[in-house]
Write a structure and sequence with these properties.
alpha+beta, six-stranded mixed beta sheet, two-stranded antiparallel sheet, 10 helices, 18% strand, globular
């Protein structure tokens, strides 16, 4: 069952995830990026949950239909369309924690600030940025983010008895602030190996970060399209167990 708002549909499992991440102290930008909805939508869902005094623990015990009944129906708010895109504003927002072009595009579409496609929005922003010769430096706080991925190259592993050679996958986890790195070889990129490598890397680092940033690969992300990658269910369970947020990068555009 899903909750409708402003022409969009939100599953109750995603609504629960929004509340879970909010209670962990993540801001609206981070929640929007992890759940692939706009910050405006996150703000609306949080407002409705707070209006009903709903906590994540309560939501976990309620059925989807009960939650939908408590939330009620959303109301669409129309706003006047603006003829031009304020890329100065877009660029400033991009420097805020957890903000991406995808989030800004969705919010602008929702407010009616522009009516262009996402690809067109990105193309116009890159053109504007090139004309203004702007640069953006990314900085990371200690224990804030760990970046994870499989490196492109494999390593040959020889079976000690049969002599058979297989190509092992190399998993790499790197702390954003210190570049402290963990790496290991596994037989494949299956979800079992993917999550196992995560667990061993966290044990190696001696703690859990605020966020894990994976590249878009099938082990951790379902349907890794350019616009809205979704988190694998097992990966989602992993995140809930460790009380961490997953912030997938878009294909060919890893993000911090």
């Amino acid at each position: 069952m899903a909750y409708k708002r402003q022409g969009a549909t939100l599953s109750m499992s995603k609504f629960r995830e929004i509340i879970r991440l909010h209670e962990l102290g993540h801001n609206k930008s981070e929640i929007a990026r992890s759940c692939f909805i706009s910050r405006t939508a996150v703000r609306d869902y949080l407002h409705r949950a707070q209006g009903q005094s709903l906590s994540y623990d309560q939501l976990s015990r309620l059925s989807d239909s009960d939650i939908q009944h408590l939330l009620g129906k959303g109301q669409r708010q129309s706003s006047r369309k603006k003829p031009a895109i304020d890329f100065e504003y877009v660029h400033r927002e991009m420097q805020r924690k957890g903000v991406t072009l995808g989030l800004l595009w969705m919010e602008g579409k929702e407010r009616g600030d522009w009516n262009c496609s996402y690809s067109g929005f990105c193309r116009r922003y890159r053109k504007w940025k090139k004309q203004h010769s702007l640069s953006m430096r990314q900085t990371h706080k200690g224990a804030e983010k760990i970046f994870v991925d499989y490196c492109g190259m494999t390593v040959p592993v020889v079976h000690p008895k049969t002599g058979e050679v297989t190509q092992a996958q190399v998993f790499v986890a790197c702390c954003g602030a210190s570049n402290y790195t963990y790496a290991e070889a596994t037989e494949s990129q299956t979800i079992k190996n993917w999550l196992g490598s995560h667990q061993r890397s966290l044990a190696f680092f001696g703690g859990v970060p605020v966020a894990i940033v994976p590249d878009n690969l099938k082990s951790g992300v379902t349907d890794p399209c350019r616009y809205e990658p979704g988190i694998n269910r097992s990966y989602q369970d992993f995140a809930e167990h460790y009380n961490v947020i997953i912030l997938p990068a878009r294909p060919q555009m890893p993000s911090g």
